[in-house]
Design goal:
nine-stranded mixed beta sheet, alpha/beta, 6 helices, 11 strands, 33% helix
Length: 220
């Protein structure tokens, strides 16, 4: 059985994704820094792994990912200070990509956001700038790696009941689909469907709630 590590394992999307990945045949672990979150992660059907990726050394990160076949990066500073956003969303993400490379973990799935790129256009005096730049840098670092990577770009997250259907943009220059909204449950479903799908290697998949069934792999 293949093993997947979700970094940011106590996030809302991660907790929804864990049981779906288990249904797909994955043995799932969720990494989180707070041991009080162990019960929630285990209730979702995942093994709890205590890990504070913001403060781990490169060697510690390498040891964290070493025993897994796939890494899902679903962590984030969650709107904290610019310094913490830089530390988690950029530095820790980049170092985790390096850790996967160093330990031979080929599969890496990054949860980013719709519109993330170096051309994000967010002014430096805007509170969102640090996050936008951090995600763009982390995404580009993953793209430049030799890993079997996929980057997911969900639009604005909602608590809506998941429809199981999305609209997809594979070309970031395609203006026919703009950012909208997507339920966290649909994001979890996309994670579960793409992690084991070799056809998503090397793809950036941006998506909203829409009309194409996720189970039919509309990115193919």
């Amino acid at each position: 059985m293949k093993r997947a590590l979700i970094i940011g394992g106590h996030g809302k999307v991660a907790l929804l994704a864990a049981p779906l990945l288990a249904e797909k045949g994955w043995s799932v672990a969720g990494a989180a820094r707070n041991p009080d979150h162990a019960a929630d992660i285990e209730a979702a059907g995942a093994e709890f792994v205590e890990a504070d990726v913001e403060r781990m050394s490169p060697e510690q990160l390498a040891n964290l990912v070493a025993d897994y076949d796939a890494v899902v990066w679903s962590a984030g500073a969650g709107g904290g200070s610019p310094e913490r956003t830089q530390a988690v969303d950029r530095e820790a993400a980049v170092q985790t990509v390096e850790a996967a490379m160093n330990r031979g973990v080929r599969r890496f799935l990054m949860v980013s956001y719709f519109g993330a790129s170096q051309e994000h256009g967010v002014p430096e005096d805007n509170d969102f700038h640090t996050y936008a730049q951090a995600k763009a840098d982390a995404d580009d670092h993953l793209r430049s790696s030799p890993l079997d990577w996929t980057i997911l770009g969900p639009s604005m997250l909602t608590e809506d009941e998941p429809s199981g259907k999305i609209d997809v943009r594979l070309d970031r220059k395609d203006s026919t689909l703009e950012g909208g909204k997507v339920s966290r449950g649909n994001v979890a479903r996309v994670i579960a469907e793409t992690l084991g799908d070799q056809n998503t290697h090397g793809l950036t998949i941006e998506f909203n709630d829409g009309s194409s069934p996720i189970a039919e792999h509309p990115w193919a």
